[in-house]
Amino acid sequence: MSEIDTPKLIRRKPDTEHPMADLLRIDRLPHVWCPTCGIGTVVNCVAAAVLKSTDIDPNHIGIVSGIGCTGRGAGYLRFDSFHTTHGRAIPFATGLKLARPDMKIVIFSGDGDLVSIGGNHFIHAARRNMDIVVICVNNFIYAMTGGQMGPTTPLHARSSTSPFGNSDIPFNLPYLAASCGATYVARWTALHVRRLQNSVSEALHRKGFSFIEVICPCATLYARLNKLGTGLDLMRFYHDNSEINQEAHLKDLDINFKGKIICGKFVDEERKTFQERYDEENKLILGDKYAPYKIPDFPHRDHNGKNDKEEKK
């Protein structure tokens, strides 16, 4: 018998650095999320968007999260990361942006944290047009605490607190964000990784309140309680039932149980930010007596924690 040549399996050398090693906290892996959860995919998209944005210094990005499954995301991204209290990611990020206007501030949290207990902060940050990026991972349920009904749970969907089906009208998040004043609004699913990366990159390169909703599978609770199959089944559902329609009216973006998911970029406009209007108004009233806020000369620290001023000594 003649020998048949079989291709050799090429394996990555153990000492080869992961392409995302500079942006992810590799030492914290493996992550805490369930198998087939989509949050890790969204985290990777955020890191890839920063990697793609070569004009943005990762040392000048701050990422803030609240409480919940998605709230753990800040701990895996190798930026200045802040894991805050439940519903308070936006006010924390607002203070951070006002103190360090030179930084890009990204909020990475879930639908329950951002628009339920944190809903009041959400609407007023959008109204003021705070210069921050909000990435809302929407899995339609409170996944970390037992699968309770949340502010985006579709009508008729089951949860641990609505065992016979939800009767509450859920939020249409893009419509909510736009009606409150957001100047950039988009929605994608965890399946649309390239489009999501591009959307995050766009948001990082613009001023104002940017909102990106990401529909994400929760196989452990939402899918199980509603007999929707595995996380892979949900991704197949996104593939078959997502429609990209950037001209869709915001009022028509509701997500029905087992219904169509309309994706796209729906709002992209320019408006003066909170800080710009604050400076303009005070300059108008006080004239030369008004001194705009100046960024303190903070020592720069790189990803390894080295202080540039300490090195000069």
Describe what you observe in this structure.
With 313 residues, the chain is an alpha/beta fold. The protein has one domain: Thiamin diphosphate (ThDP)-binding fold, Pyr/PP domains (Rossmann fold, 3-Layer(aba) Sandwich), CATH 3.40.50. It has 10 helices and 10 strands. The chain has helices spanning 39-52, 89-99, 111-115, 119-128, 173-180, 193-204, 219-225, 231-241, 274-286, 308-312, and strands at 61-65, 80-83, 104-110, 133-138, 141-142, 148-149, 184-189, 210-215, 242-244, 261-268. It has an 8-stranded mixed sheet, sandwiched between helices. A two-stranded antiparallel ribbon has the order 5-6. Strand 7, helix 6 and strand 8 form a beta-alpha-beta unit. Helix 4 packs across helix 5 (173-180). The longest helix is centred in the N-terminal third of the chain and has 14 residues, at 39-52.
